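job 3f2a | input accepted
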Amino acid sequence: MPVTHVEDKERLDRVVRMSGNSRRNPGADEIRRIIRGTERIAVVGMSRDPAKAARRIPSYLAAMGAEIVPVNPLADRILGRNAHATLEEVDDSVDMVLIFRPSPEVAPFVRAAAARPEAPVIWLQEGIRDDRAAEEARAAGRTVVQDLCIYRVHRAMGGTLRRGLRRQ
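job 3f2a | predicted structure (168 res):
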C-alpha cells in the first residue's frame, strides 16, 4: 500500500521533534521547504572512507539528486568530484552547507557558511551542535539546523530532492 502525504508529514514531524535541538530548529514545514529547495550541498568534513556517515550520507544525497561539493583538506577527489580544502574555496553558489565535524570544531565552519553571500542553510548533522555559533548565524539572518540527521529527514519525506522531482 502506498504511503500517503499525511503519513510522510507525520514521520517528518516525529523525526524533527526527536532532535535534541528541536526548539531552535525550524519546524517540519520549514525543514520540508529547505530539503525541497536544496540542489547543491557543500559538505564540510566529507570523508574519503565509505564506511563513515560523513561519506555514506552525502553519497545517498547525491544518489537522490543533490550535487555534492566535498570540503576536506586531506582529499583531492571524493565521489569523483574535486574536493576543496576550505569552504571559502568553493566558488559555486550552494543551497546548503552540511557540516560533519566534531561539535568543538564547528564554530569556524558555521561562521564561514554564514558569511557566504548566497546565504545557504547551515545544517549540523546529528550529534553536532554549537549553540553560540548557531545563534550568531541566526542573528545574521541565516537558517541553522543543529543535531538533526538529514538522511532521516530525507527518508521521512519520501526520499526526493527538487532535482529528483524535475525528472518525474
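job 3f2a | Helices lie at 5-18, 28-36, 53-63, 107-114, 131-139, 150-156, 162-167.
job 3f2a | closed
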